[in-house]
Amino acid sequence: MAKKEVTVEEKLRALYDLQLIDSRIDEITAIRGELPLEVEDLEDEVAGLQKRLDKLNNDVTAQDDNIKGKKIAIDESKQLIKKYKEQQENVRNNREFNSLSKEVEFQELEIELAEKHIKEFKVQIIQKKEIIESTQEKINTRSSHLEHKKGELDEILAETQKEEQLLIGKSEDFGNKIDERLVNAYKRIRGNVKNGLAVVPVERGASGGSYFTIPPQIQMEIASRKKIITDEHSGRILVDLELAVEEKTKMDKLFAKF
Fold first, then answer.
1. Domain residue spans in the chain?
2. CATH architecture label of 35-166
3. pLDDT at 55
4. What pLDDT, on the 0 to 100 scale, is given for residue 2?
5. Fewest CB atoms within 10 Å of the CB: 51, 146, 155, 194?
6. What one-character DSSP code corresponds to residue 179?
7. pLDDT of 68
């Protein structure tokens, strides 16, 4: 059985239906506004702050380990000092005594240096803990803000997601009724105009959203629905007002079911 040929009028109706569906999807996207991007930015910010907090905590742990290491080194030096002093009591000459004295002096310097490092580590820990506290406060504040924004987004999604998915499906269905070349032209025009209107009706002698008058002869050709006509100024596909009203009434009934 031969495939039924689609008339120009049927193509125009399908194109305008597709426009009405895509415009409704645009409205839903506008309702969400910048919320998805805000949520994404907040998630990235909280993740970045958490990463910084983890590094700071790791730094504090490392400094604690350094302090423990220095304390062990101090204990070892004290043990060596005790040992060298005991050995000094049994030396046979001044050379041995002086040699042990140098070892004692060296270990005392080691203790002094270790204690200096311990003080430095403790100061660094105090500084890092202050930063940790302020970072945690930022995380708490931004996380609270994030939860609030996610709640807003979830609420909007709950209201619109089902409708949006149904509309996207309908957009694909109506797009399949039109030949690929025309669909590609429609998408290209939609991408080139700021309000996404690629198919508009002729109203008061001008194309929708335009102040440029369309000559009466062209208006008659548009109303005849015998060929696809575009606005020479905006590039939009033009349909007559009667067709637009009929299709909008039909599509409004469809949208009401969603």
1. 8-32+179-256, 35-166
2. Orthogonal Bundle (1.10)
3. 97
4. 43
5. 194
6. -
7. 97
pTM score, whole prediction: 0.61
Structure tokens at 135: 């970072």
> Per-residue pLDDT tens for 28-81?
888 888 889 999 999 999 999 999 999 999 999 999 999 999 999 999 999 999
User: Can you give the pLDDT at residue 4?
Assistant: 63
Q: How many CB atoms lie within 10 A of CB 52?
A: 15
The mean pLDDT of 158-162, rounded to a whole number, is 80
